[in-house]
């Protein structure tokens, strides 16, 4: 199958404004973002055929164009954004330039692939369950899931509204910060404010041993930069990370079913088996299951406030492993996805910002370290990335 990061067909390009803070940069947009006059494909061959061609740019696309960046193309996504490892049954799996022969991570797979390959300087992705954070880790990039609700999602295909965010990738911290200032609408601080660094030992225990060991020197570097010591904590009570992962899945699937049900009812679209299976599971969820999951979410939010509202920074592995090889059976891909979900659920449930930093390698493949802060502290995290 094709391994191109960009959607099939002629490359969609647009010039940016003549001047601006991002002049000279090229960006790609995941094919969940509207570009005026061109269909949005959402990784499914029946999506574009059953949706009108957008008449205006998505907020994120318009913002980057107005800041001077030029659109270099639209990129492949996992089908209707439902995927975390980066494969697409219809359009192929974008290559992972940082780990040849391996999965790139998803669902913003094409955007991460294009940046890692040098085909653009930055790229837009979406992150509901980890879809920027995971490909950032597997492709060796800087990536961010902003505070939920911080950045408009106008013109972005929805999945699970209480999780959906717009994020972006970059190969280097300077470009990452440059884009962040525009997207966040605030200057990135030059100085890094002193703060304690919290190492969540239970999250590190979920990662493969080589990943743990590779990330620990980066943790020490960040603790030294922040200047207020390193404290080892547990993010949750024993077994709680698994509970958060399972209940996050319930809420996200339930919201996704409400998003896609009208389209499915009207068009009976084609789906790959893994997507059809997940839709069927989502359709079977009860109100009681969702209510229970939301009560669990409140516990996670209380934990986030306790740990982070005083200004501390939390460190966790972004993914528990480096990029898996291509060609794995679906059952093994499911197991990988479940493990990833245990690490991605905290920020999704609580709405806090998370950045993934490409600070380690294992056997030549990237492994990302994530930093998490209180809601609204996105610029602090970007400042730390740049200062490193």
How does this structure look, described?
With 388 residues, the chain is of the alpha/beta class. It is 38% helix and 15% strand. It folds into two domains: 26-184, Alpha-Beta Complex (Amidase signature (AS) enzymes), CATH 3.90.1300.10; 195-239 and 289-387, Alpha-Beta Complex (Amidase signature (AS) enzymes), CATH 3.90.1300. The chain has a ten-stranded mixed β-sheet, sandwiched between helices. α1 (59-66) links the parallel β1 and β2 (70-75).
Which stretches are poorly predicted, pLDDT < 50 over at least 5 residues? none
- Tally the helices: 11
CATH H-level superfamily title of the largest domain: Amidase signature (AS) domain
The H-and-E topology, N to C, reads as EHEHEHEEHEHHEHHHEHEEH
The main pleated sheet reads as: 10 strands, mixed
- Largest sheet strand order: 2-1-3-5-4-9-10-8-6-7
CATH architecture term of the largest domain: Alpha-Beta Complex
CATH topology of the largest domain: Amidase signature (AS) enzymes
Helix content: 25-40%
Q: Rough shape?
A: globular
CATH class of the largest domain: Alpha Beta
- Integer average pLDDT: 97
Gyration radius, rounded = 19 Å
Total strand segments: 10
Beta content: 15-25%
Question: Helices and strands in order, then pairings?
Answer:
Elements: E1 26-30, H1 59-66, E2 70-75, H2 109-116, E3 122-126, H3 133-139, E4 142-145, E5 166-170, H4 173-184, E6 195-200, H5 201-204, H6 209-226, E7 227-233, H7 240-267, H8 273-283, H9 287-308, E8 313-317, H10 330-350, E9 354-362, E10 365-372, H11 378-387
């Amino acid at each position: 199958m094709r391994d191109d990061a960009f959607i099939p067909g002629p490359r969609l390009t647009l010039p940016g404004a003549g001047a601006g803070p991002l002049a000279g940069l090229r960006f790609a947009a995941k094919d969940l973002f509207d570009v005026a006059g061109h269909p949005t494909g959402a990784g499914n061959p029946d999506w574009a055929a059953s949706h009108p061609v957008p008449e205006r740019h998505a907020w994120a696309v318009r913002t980057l164009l107005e800041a001077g960046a030029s659109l270099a193309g639209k990129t492949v996504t996992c089908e209707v954004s439902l995927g975390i490892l980066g494969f697409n049954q219809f359009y192929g799996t974008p290559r992972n330039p940082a780990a040849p022969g391996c999965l790139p991570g998803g669902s913003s797979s094409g955007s991460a692939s294009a940046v890692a390959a040098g085909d653009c300087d930055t790229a837009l992705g979406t992150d509901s369950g980890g879809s920027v954070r995971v490909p950032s880790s597997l492709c060796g990039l800087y990536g961010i899931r902003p505070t939920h609700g911080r950045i408009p999602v106008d013109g972005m295909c929805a999945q699970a509204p209480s999780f959906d965010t717009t994020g972006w990738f970059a190969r280097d911290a300077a470009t990452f910060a440059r884009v962040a200032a525009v997207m966040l609408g605030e200057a990135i601080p030059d100085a890094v404010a002193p703060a304690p660094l919290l190492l969540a030992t239970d999250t590190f225990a979920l990662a493969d041993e080589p990943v743990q060991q590779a990330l620990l020197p980066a943790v020490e570097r960040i603790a030294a930069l922040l200047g207020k010591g390193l404290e080892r904590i547990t993010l949750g009570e024993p077994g709680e990370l698994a509970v958060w992962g399972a209940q996050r899945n319930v809420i996200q699937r339930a919201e996704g079913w409400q998003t896609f049900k009208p389209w499915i009812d009207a068009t009976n679209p084609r789906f790959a088996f893994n997507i059809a299976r997940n839709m069927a599971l989502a359709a079977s969820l009860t109100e009681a299951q969702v209510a229970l999951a939301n009560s669990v979410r409140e516990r996670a939010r209380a934990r986030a406030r306790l740990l982070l509202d005083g200004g501390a920074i939390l460190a966790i592995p972004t993914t528990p492993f480096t990029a898996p090889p291509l060609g794995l059976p679906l059952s093994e891909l499911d197991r990988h996805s479940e493990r990833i979900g245990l690490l991605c659920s905290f920020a999704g449930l609580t709405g806090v910002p998370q950045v993934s930093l490409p600070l380690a390698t294992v056997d030549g493949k990237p492994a990302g370290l994530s930093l998490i802060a209180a809601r609204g502290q996105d610029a602090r995290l970007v400042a730390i990335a740049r200062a490193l």
